[in-house]
Design a protein that fits this description.
Helix content is 32%, strand content 28%. It has 550 residues and is an alpha+beta fold. Helix 1 (32-40) packs parallel to helix 2 and helix 11 packs across helix 13 (326-337).
């Protein structure tokens, strides 16, 4: 049963609000105050939006904390708290909040997240400007990786069918602005009960119902927080985000894939369907069998994950694998083969995969900083082991690149074919990203990148990284003819930072900005902080910055 604990209403009580903030809470405690205070700090007039908290049967003082803070803050936006019996999941509280909302738009916020001061003003203005049904504001992650590429350039109108690979699929959470009449027209509701990926199901159905989707790319609107436990804070969502049981999770992946197969949504092109499905079949299911994500589980959980994902992989047609990047095609081959030990062996290789960036030169000129750096793709198979190059075989006659796999992994049916990295190597690149340490905002920099092949024979002769190759790989390159075809990859990177314009034409916010290099190849997105370099922007004179040791 839903009851209103207290309410602060508009004086006229008639005209609709521009925005209703819907916030599910559960045993959040004092953590809820960060978000609440950010709502009071909005530049949108407080009479133009309302806040609807839906408390999912908290057993702590969450409701009392909200009530006391509203009283302490005084005049502000209308705030309501609706109390429901505990469902344990965010789907039902969000549905209850949506039903109670009186705004033209609904914006979903998790109880431990917060909004930047201009967030509501900007996302609403963007909706009015573009006529969008959905507006996603730029996000910053705190303890978690927030979507970035989708906000590199403005999007005024996006259609999932005509552009299925667009990076908007990188933001599937519901922390967005939705036109309420759009939700009502299409009966868009959250799955209730113990359903994983319920936010993906909701967002995907919404994406499939409209081509009017826009972004705010030039202002960080939403601050997305990961809490790792402790105290009463963290919100209802946090309590179900860790220790995920494999079978229900994989079943939820099946449900998402079923949405793509539903004739109601009209995805008839098989290639388009597989491209879309790779977001969940690959990134949500097969990803669970890779690297540290797999190895950090207990042995019992690794068995459960492997069995659940293997069952899903066996249900997929070969064409589904073709839409995956090579690293996940290898995982699919291992999943279908059914040998968990081999999957763990390859996961150890991936867990140690990284790159080693270094600054080569820096120069200030006319208020801008120009940086030249380099990095190399390497692997550390064990924590205390020395880094060795990730090795590719380059067939000069066919101009093809193949990732060298451990012998047992290579013998798995389909694994060697999946290790064809020809196009990924050709398209591989390193991008430079500025990250604000204090605020979490990430900004892409225009980057030049040159890929350099380092012959393994040259490495061996010079006693470099290749001198530390594992014995199984050394034994496979005994002849000079074969060695000449082995190579590793190095990247030479350059970029310029103008503190006066680096944030989409606006000055960088005051504080410390570190530079991160993101190496993209074959589905690996490897992020490393560029050592010995930060950009400091003072409160006064934003157009200047300093370089110092990190």
């Amino acid at each position: 049963m839903t009851t209103t604990l207290f309410a602060v209403d508009r004086a006229d009580g008639a005209a609709p609000f521009k925005v209703s903030l819907v916030v599910p809470t559960h045993n959040t405690g004092d953590t809820v105050l960060t978000g609440l205070r950010s709502f009071y700090a909005q530049t949108m007039p407080h009479t133009d939006f309302e806040v609807v908290y839906v408390d999912d049967g908290s057993t702590d003082d969450t409701v009392a904390v909200i009530e006391a803070e509203v009283e302490r803050l005084g005049a502000g936006p209308p705030v309501r708290v609706l109390r429901i019996e505990n469902s344990g999941w965010p789907g039902r509280p969000r549905n209850v909040g949506t039903d109670a909302a009186r705004g033209e738009f609904v914006h979903y916020v998790d109880d431990d997240d917060w909004l930047a001061p201009e967030a509501l003003e900007r996302v609403y203005a963007r909706a009015v400007e573009t006529g969008a049904d959905i507006v996603a504001g730029r996000m910053a992650g705190h303890g978690r990786r927030a979507p970035r590429a989708v906000f590199a350039k403005p999007i005024a109108s996006w259609d999932i069918r005509s552009d299925p690979k667009r990076k908007m699929l990188g933001t599937m959470t519901v922390h967005k602005l939705f036109r309420r009449s759009f939700l009502e027209q299409h009966g868009l509701r959250f799955e209730e009960g113990e359903v994983r990926l319920e936010d993906h199901m909701f967002t995907l159905r919404a994406y499939l119902r409209t081509d009017r989707i826009a972004t705010v790319h030039d202002y960080t609107c939403y601050h997305w927080v990961k809490h790792n436990g402790g105290g009463s804070g963290g919100g209802g969502k946090r309590n179900i985000s860790y220790g995920v049981p494999p079978r229900p999770y994989v079943q939820s992946v099946r449900t998402v894939l079923g949405i793509l197969d539903d004739p109601e949504y009209g995805i008839e092109d098989d290639v388009q369907r597989h491209n879309l499905a790779s977001r969940w079949y690959g990134n949500k299911a097969l990803e669970r069998l890779t690297g540290k994500l797999f190895l950090d589980q207990s042995e019992e959980r690794r068995v459960e994950w492997f069995d659940a994902v293997s069952a899903l992989a066996s249900e997929q047609p070969p064409e589904a694998d073709a839409a995956l990047p090579p690293r996940l095609r290898i995982a699919a081959a291992l999943a279908r083969h059914g040998d968990r030990q081999l999957a763990e062996e390859h996961a150890r290789f991936e867990a140690g995969l990284t790159h080693r960036p270094k600054v080569v030169a820096t120069e200030w000129q006319d208020g801008s900083l120009t940086v030249r750096c380099s990095t190399r793709l390497v692997s550390k198979p064990r924590k205390r082991a020395a880094a060795v190059p990730a090795v590719f075989e380059h067939s000069r006659a066919e101009d093809r690149y193949e990732l060298k796999l451990a012998p047992g992994v290579e013998a798995v049916p389909g694994a060697r074919a999946a290790a064809d990295f020809t196009e990924p190597v050709r398209r591989s690149s390193v991008g430079a990203v500025l990250r604000h340490r204090e605020g979490g905002t990430e900004l892409d920099l225009d980057t030049t990148c040159r890929r350099v092949e380092v012959p393994l024979r040259k490495d061996l002769a010079g006693g470099g990284l290749a001198g530390r190759l594992p014995s199984w790989l050394k034994s496979r390159i005994p002849a000079a003819r074969r060695a000449s075809r082995q190579c590793s990859l190095r990247y030479e990177v350059g970029f310029t930072v103008d503190p006066a314009t680096a944030d989409q034409g606006r000055p960088l916010a005051p504080g410390t900005w570190e530079v991160r290099l993101r190496l993209n190849v074959g589905g690996w997105r490897l992020v490393r902080v560029l050592p010995d370099l930060t950009v400091d922007v003072p409160e006064a004179g934003r157009a200047t910055a300093e370089v110092r040791a990190a």
